[in-house]
Design a protein that fits this description.
This protein is of the alpha/beta class. It contains 11 helices and 9 strands. The strands form 3 sheets. The protein has a 5-stranded mixed beta sheet with strand order 2-1-3-5-8, sandwiched between helices. A two-stranded parallel ribbon has the order 4-9.
């Protein structure tokens, strides 16, 4: 989730207005990389409140470990009202995570608590990172933003529930990015997904996007004055097959023994809307482009 706000804060005897951009992500990898990309491109990041809601919340974590789970603040803002509200909501989030499935606790209920904090802070724009898996199985066809969503797995079901909750909020400009499989820039996501996808068909294709391109999409949506749509897919120009994705990290192709389960993940993302409306142009249009630039294992610095 990414939020953008114009808020007034008390400072001594007067008031000032500070551009508040609380930044959070469903994984620590992207939250850190996004702040770095914004800084690299000349955006102001020292006045950001950086929040990270990680997917791997452990139910036995106590308060001492909680700040590392929910967020780290990098803000010089004089007022602490917003932070206080976030911590109140995050305390409720931790109680929820102990009582419900993790995907629901993080993606649905955690987002709900953060949205309440956003409303408290008079947030101007709330950008939520969802997933293209919300479309469900469609036989490997391109899914556009107007297609019906019929997710089959717990993770996209919880993301879709969060989308619906956010889109129903009043007084907040909610925008949604449905992401593909995100990779590169030193993130071991491909390697980590190999065991799960080992039984998928080698010819099955998957929409992907490099971290720097996801960061570009988020930045474009944050900075656009009046985006034409509330939901945008993000994807490379080309969706590689799984044999190529496995080969990118030196692994043999998947064996196809779990083709039925793999069909839950076969939808491809149609990325035309974000290109036409926000002028999104991926730095790495294809997986092979990232490989040639050595941008898989290494942090890409250009």
């Amino acid at each position: 989730m990414f939020l953008q706000s114009e808020c007034g804060f008390a400072s001594g005897g007067g008031r000032y207005t500070s551009r508040l951009r609380p930044v959070s992500s469903g994984c620590t990898h992207f939250g850190k990389k996004f702040a770095r990309c914004r800084s690299r491109n000349g955006a102001e990041v020292r006045n950001q409140v950086c929040l990270v809601i990680v997917s791997g919340v452990h139910r036995d974590m106590g308060p001492a470990q909680f700040p590392a789970v929910f967020g780290c603040f990098e803000s010089p803002l004089e007022s602490r009202q917003f932070e206080k509200c976030l911590w109140t909501q995050s305390d409720r989030f931790m109680k929820d995570s102990a009582q419900m499935p993790l995907a629901d606790a993080v993606n649905e209920r955690g987002t709900q608590h953060l949205a309440r904090a956003a409303r408290f802070a008079n947030v101007e724009r709330f950008v939520f990172l969802s997933t293209g898996l919300t479309y469900g199985s469609n036989g490997g066809r391109l899914a556009d933003e107007n297609d019906a969503c019929k997710p089959l797995e717990a993770y996209p079901k919880s993301k879709l529930a969060a989308e619906k909750m956010l889109l129903g909020m009043e007084d907040v400009d909610v925008r949604i990015l449905r992401l593909p499989f995100v990779y590169g820039d030193g993130d071991p996501h491909i390697e980590e997904a190999i065991p799960f996808m080992r039984g998928f068909p080698p010819s099955q294709r998957m929409s992907i996007s490099h971290h720097v391109d996801v960061a570009q999409a988020v930045s474009l949506l944050l900075d656009a004055q009046s985006p034409s749509h509330r939901i945008y897919n993000v994807a490379d120009d080309e969706a590689p097959d799984l044999a190529a994705l496995f080969a990118a990290v030196g692994q043999p192709p998947p064996d196809g023994t779990s083709a039925e389960r793999a069909s839950n993940f076969d939808a491809l993302l149609d990325g035309r809307r974000i290109r036409q409306d926000l002028k999104f142009r991926p730095t790495f249009p294809k997986l092979e482009d990232a490989i040639k630039a050595d941008a898989l294992d290494q942090a890409w610095s250009k």
